[in-house]
């Protein structure tokens, strides 16, 4: 049995007025409204998405 590391992501700024691709990335992370959070697998794809919208989200390893 392998243990996957996870990362918790929380939306801390509104995506209103941002680029459409950034809004789509926020939705792709599973974040809907302000202060909503999601626990995701820590993969390179997820890390890239978090980096793209780092000014909108807060992330921490779980």
Note the main sheet. Answer: 3 strands, antiparallel
**Topology as a string of helices (H) and strands (E):** EHEHE
Structural class: alpha+beta
CATH superfamily: Ribosomal protein L30/L7
Strand content: 25-35%
Which sequence of strands runs across the widest sheet?
2-1-3
How many H/I helices?
Answer: 2
**What does the overall shape look like?**
globular
Number of strands: 3
Which stretches are poorly predicted, pLDDT < 50 over at least 5 residues?
none
Protein model, in words:
By secondary structure, the chain is α+β, with helices and mostly antiparallel strands. It has a single domain (6-61), classed as Ribosomal protein L30/L7 (Ribosomal Protein L30, Chain: A), CATH 3.30.1390.20. The chain is built from two helices and three strands. It has helices at 20-28, 44-52, and strands at residues 6-11, 37-41, 57-61. A three-stranded antiparallel beta sheet has the order 2-1-3, with no helix packed on it. 16% of the residues are buried. The mean pLDDT is 95.
């Amino acid at each position: 049995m392998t243990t996957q590391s996870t990362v918790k992501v929380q939306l801390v700024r509104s995506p209103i007025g941002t680029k459409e691709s950034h809004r789509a990335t926020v939705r792709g992370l599973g974040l809907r409204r302000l202060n909503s959070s999601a626990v995701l697998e820590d993969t390179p794809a997820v890390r890239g998405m978090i980096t793209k919208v780092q000014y909108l989200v807060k992330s921490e390893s779980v």
